[in-house]
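INSTRUCTION: Work out how this chain folds

Fields: amino acid sequence; protein backbone structure tokens

Chain under study, with its fold:
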Amino acid sequence: MRVLLWHGWLLEGTGSNVYTAQVAEELAAQGHEVVLLCQEPHPERHPWIDAVGTVDAKRVSDLTPNAAPAHAGRCVLLRPDIGSLLPVFVLDDYEGFLVKRFVDLSDVELDWYLRCNVEALRVAAAWQRTEAVIAGHAVPGGVVAKRAMGPGLYVTSIHGSDLEFAIRPQMRYRKLASEGLQAAAAVAGPSQDVLARCVELVSGIERLVQVVHPGVDTNQFCPRPAREALMDLATRLQADPDTERGRPSSLDEEVRRISESRDGAALEALARAYDQTVPDPDAAERLRAMSVRNGPIVGYFGKLIPQKGVELLLAALTRSIRRPSALVVGFGLERERLAALVLALRSGDNQTIEWLLETSSPPIRRSDLGGVPLTSNVAFTGRLDHGYAPDALAAMDVLVVPSILSEAFGMVAAEGAASGALPLVARHSGLAEVAAALEGLVGQPGLLSFEPGPAGIHHLAAGIDRLLGIPVPERQLIRDTIRAFLAEEWSWRRTAGQLLDLARTPVPS
């Protein structure tokens, strides 16, 4: 079947990026002819992509071979010509683009962006003779597909960031979401929660919504001894030339100085002084040091932005009686605030701790902390792309997802569980559905989740200690049970197949 996927951004770094990449790869593996529209600048990092080109309002360019994948189908990546402006939901640096939040776009900028993508999708679909279109996000994917293809000729896949960072705050995006979703053949979402939030904001789509869980590749994400995973990851990072552009450890002194001057803006500016898209130059050294320590490892994997709640994990470390090491994998403009908090917690600098906690989002009280100075080792790595993720997650005993944002699903929790890291997620939104499914599977309600809110740090610390206190044989049984479920029920083959079935089968009126 000839399938076209529209995604406005990259293929690494965020949940929707990874989701799109995995669905495209799986569809090509199943023998379909896939055209993928996105702005990925490094297709060479994705050997399942056969060829690369561009597309504008007039034509598809000549294609450049990318790889010779061993799959039955074919995947061509086309980059729509949208100019230099790339709208996003949450600010990050994007190579080659001027980045601006959707809510900050002028009407002229928004109209231009939509028109460029509509024309590109229309031209690409005619070139491919597309039979099925799957567009990501209620906005802009839904409205782009509707204007390019017409009503009933596409499926829209909801990811959640579009709801919370564009549609909820601004009426113009609600109108665009209504236009795109009401005309879709189906509206797929990873959880009942995110679909309910979508229906709340966009009326008239109740009959179109369908839960389609994301997947996890249990061949790629699998358990390994922690020390072996850490050492292998360190060896690979040591050989990665891109790390030279990452955050140097010498920046810690500047972080201390800025913290003493209480300049939050300068901390954020410092995060722009290096390449956020690559691992730290010293990450390999930190991982090797962690590999020789005795004791458990808890971890975080994701964006370093206030909405993800990483400060809650750092605060919970001060209350954990088991004093685990912490592995923090990720990138974002919150990195230097988090580094400042770790430095202050280690030194017992109460004044700096209180300043950082007061200006955190949400604010954390000094009384929520336990023992300071912090004795747990905390290692940052910078951004590790999806190819590094299996080793990083396999090194963790517990993977914490402390997000304070309403999440669509929490795909990283499933990837962590497949890798042998017991997930511990905040009990809200789509995360609660993930936890409930896995807790029901092992017959232990509340085991893999914690109650957020005013006492969230206490609950998170108790959850960490609870999971680390499970005897090894019981912990292994829990891991094996969850992993078998993931391989059967939450696979990318199943995800891609369900999306394609929705695109093939019109919803009855």
Summary: The chain has a mean pLDDT of 95. The chain has 19 helices and 17 strands. The longest helix spans residues 107-128. The domain at 2-215+491-504 is CATH 3.40.50.2000 (Rossmann fold).
